Amino acid sequence: MTTEFKNQIKEKLSVYIAQKGSQNKAANSLNGISATLLSQIINGNHKTISAVMWRNIATQIKCFSKKWLCVETTDFKIISKVLADAQQHAHVFALTGDAGSGKSMSFEIYTKNNKNSYLLSCAEYWNRKEFLTQLLSTMGVDYSGFSVVEMMNEIVKKLKSQETPLIILDEADKLPDTVLYFFITLYNRLEDHCGIALCATDHLSKRINKGIKLNRKGYKEINSRIGRHFIELKGVSFIDITQICIANGIDDVKSIKSIFADSEGDLRRVKRKIQAVQNKI
Question: Which architecture, in CATH terms, is 74-232?
Fold first, then answer.
C-alpha cells in the first residue's frame, strides 16, 4: 500500500463523504467502517490503519490504484534466487517458463535493484554486431566506430572491471545460432567472474536438445556451460493470482475464481481481466 495510493483513496473518500452528506452517513453506507476511522483518514492521522483496511475502503468506494501493483509470485521468488546466485558466484543458468508467466517483469525488477546487472531482451533480427551493440548500450558504454572484435573486447574489459556483474539474456530462444554462439565466447572469457542467465520458453530447451542430437556446432558446448540443466519455472498458481487481485483492489472470492479460471496461466490476461472487473464495479 503506497503513500501515493493512500492519497488517492483519501481524495476519493473526501468526494464520497461530500456526496453522502457527512462522515457519519458515509460510514453507515460502508461495511465495517466507522466514522472515527474516516475522520482519521481525512485528517491524516492514519499511521495505525492497516493495509487491509485501506484496501477495504478503496474497494467499497470504487477507488483503484492508477498504477498496476505487482506482487512476489512463486516464479518471481525462484527467478530472484537464481539470479542472485548467478551474480554472487558467477554461475551460469538457463531458465524456461511459459509466455506470460512474469519472467520479463521479474528480470526488470531485479536489474533495477541490483548494481552491475544487465538485461537484454533478445530479438530474431539481431546479428552479431547488433547483439554487441545492444549489450554495450545497456552497459552505458560508447561503442561508436568499434568493430565487432573491439566491441567484444570492450565488453569483457568493462565487465572484468566490475564486482559481480550479471548478464541476463531474456527470450534467448529468438537469437540465431551465429549470435547464440557468442554466449560461449562470453562464458569462456568471463568464466568465474561474470554470471550469465539464459531465459526463454521451453522452445530453448527443445532447441538445444535437438541441436545436440543433430550434432550441430556449439550446442554441446552451450549445454555444458549451463550445467546440462534447465530450471523450469512453476507457472502462475491460484495463490499468485489471488495475491495479484487483492493488491489491485479485487478481493471477492467469486471474481478471483473467475479471473483464475479465465487466465490460462497468463499474467497479461490476468491484468486485463482485473481491469475489466474494476471498470464494472
Answer: 3-Layer(aba) Sandwich (3.40)
Q: Which amino acid is at 36?
A: T
CB 236 within 8 A of CB 75: yes
The DSSP symbol for 94 reads E
pLDDT, tens digit (0-9, with 9 covering 90-100), for 61-99 = 877 766 777 889 999 999 999 999 999 999 999 999 998
Q: How far apart are CA 271 and CA 281, in angstroms?
A: 16
**In sequence order, which residues have a C-beta less than 8 Å from that of residue 250 and are 6 or more positions away?**
59, 256, 259, 274, 277, 278
Output the nine-digit C-alpha cell for 51: 493495509
Parse the chain into domains and list their residue ranges: 1-67, 74-232
Q: Which of 124, 114, 120 is nearest to 163 (CA)?
A: 114
Amino acid occupying residue 209: N
How far apart CA 107 and CA 112 sit, in angstroms, is: 9
Residues 6 or more apart whose Cβ sits within 8 Å of residue 236:
73, 75, 100, 101, 102, 263, 265, 266, 267, 270
Tell the residue number behind the cell numbers 530450471, with chain if given: 231
Q: What is the pLDDT averaged over residues 275-279?
A: 81
The DSSP bridge partners found for residue 93 are 197
Q: Is the dihedral of CA 232, 237, 243, 248 positive or negative?
A: positive
Nearest CA to 196 out of 166, 174, 221 is that of 166
At residue 54, the pLDDT reads 87
